[in-house]
Amino acid sequence: MSVSDLTEKEQAVVYDCLRAATEGPFFAEREFGALFGMGRAEVGSVMRAWPRVDRSDETVSLAISNAIANLLRQTHVLPEERRRWVPASDEEIVAILGKWHDATVVAPSQVLRTLGDLMSRISETCYEAPWMVGTEYMVPELCRRAAATGEPQPWARGEVAPAVARHLTELAGKLGGWARLDQGGTGYLPFDPFPTPERFLEELDFWKRKAGQ
């Protein structure tokens, strides 16, 4: 797959994400390098070259993956503010990230970080907690249910949509497992969440009943 296999709309969303990351109000200079693994100028150079980029270039792959992931996962990036820069839904952006990962050679460590970041984003959206207790069990189970039924699965104040579930499941398949936040809260570890402990199944069933499903 080449960049040209992305539709014009999808290419525009990628450009918007790169522009939001480099020119938007979301990432302070003091934290940019730690979040992106490169400087703002490097991400900006990818933005200016887009879509005439070499997808095999590690700088290009990292800039695009991290621009999208950070806009989705960082708790201070409010969805309504992000949409002023990137007028696309979470589901659309996640689907594009999935296509981009399919188009590039992605290191397992990068897949783990992307998967963990997206799991954390679900926890933040549903529970206003970057990593709610049991996220490593409940998000995979929510994804399993959403992918199997084709219906959104409720969890506290939010839900996991089928498109998001399919993308996270694909990432987990590439990694050979899911992600768990390490004890220090500083990174992710590969994790096998199945079978899901009964107490977490009971919590998910509670939210399902509460939503009237």
Strand arrangement, major sheet: 1-2
SS-based structural class? mainly alpha
Share of helix, binned: 55-70%
Structurally, the number of domains stands at 2
Mean pLDDT: 87
Uncertain regions spanning at least 5 consecutive residues: none
Quaternary arrangement of the chains shown? single chain
Number of contiguous helices: 10
Overall shape: it is: globular
Rg calc: 17 Å
Features:
2 domains; globular; 10 helices; two-stranded antiparallel sheet; single chain; mainly alpha; 213 residues
Description:
This protein is mostly helical and 213 residues long. The chain folds into 2 domains: 1-104, no CATH class; 107-213, no CATH class. Helices cover 62% and strands 7% of the residues. It is built from 10 helices and 4 strands. It has helices spanning 8-23, 29-36, 40-49, 58-73, 79-85, 90-103, 108-127, 135-149, 162-175, 198-210, and strands at residues 153-155, 158-160, 178-181, 188-191. The strands form 2 sheets. Strands 1-2 form a two-stranded antiparallel ribbon. A two-stranded antiparallel sheet has the order 3-4. A hairpin with a 6-residue loop joins β3 (178-181) and β4. The longest helix is centred in the middle third of the chain and has 20 residues, at 108-127. The chain is globular and about 50 Å long. The termini are far apart. The mean pLDDT is 87.
